[in-house]
Amino acid sequence: MEQAPLNVLIIEDNSGDALLEEIALAEQDFPSIVHRSINGDEAIAHLGAAPVDLVLLDGILDGEPGLEVLRRIKTDSVRPDVPVVIVTGSERQRDREEFLANGAAASLYKRTTFEELVSELGALKRFT
């Protein structure tokens, strides 16, 4: 039986980082359909308009902290139940703990090699 694709929303204001995440998802052994938003407003609108199974959220967006976008998704969107994985360049344990305390399903470190990113995103299979 063919596996249904995982609908992933990447919320990332850096197009290069978003592209790397998209390519790393394509390397997985599960199918995915990727959509992109560059800010919280676009993301909230997308969540109300299209199916999303998983969100990859940049920890620091231009003009709006990722933590604030996470809070908006969990309180103001039509999909507060959607798993949100934070992709952050912050090495501070406190930052990761704050994301998790506010409803993030997991936190990934952004500044890894491409191979490490592919491996880390492989853990997302649990959301399929």
Topology:
Elements: E1 6-11, H1 15-26, E2 32-37, H2 40-49, E3 54-58, E4 60-61, E5 64-65, H3 66-76, E6 84-88, H4 93-101, E7 106-109, H5 114-122
Parallel strand pairs: 1-2, 1-3, 3-6, 6-7
Antiparallel strand pairs: 4-5
Helix pairs in contact: 1-5, 2-3
Query: How are helices and strands ordered from N to C?
Result: EHEHEEEHEHEH
Domain count, please report it.
1
Side by side, the strands of the main sheet go: 2-1-3-6-7
Q: How many strand segments?
A: 7
Describe the biggest sheet? 5 strands, parallel
Keywords:
128 residues, alpha/beta, Rossmann fold, 7 strands
Can you describe what's shown?
The strands form two sheets. This protein has a five-stranded parallel beta sheet, sandwiched between helices. The protein has a two-stranded antiparallel ribbon with strand order 4-5. The chain is globular and about 40 Å long. It is α/β, with parallel strands linked by helices. It has one domain: Rossmann fold. The protein is built from five helices and seven strands; from the N terminus they run βαβαβββαβαβα.
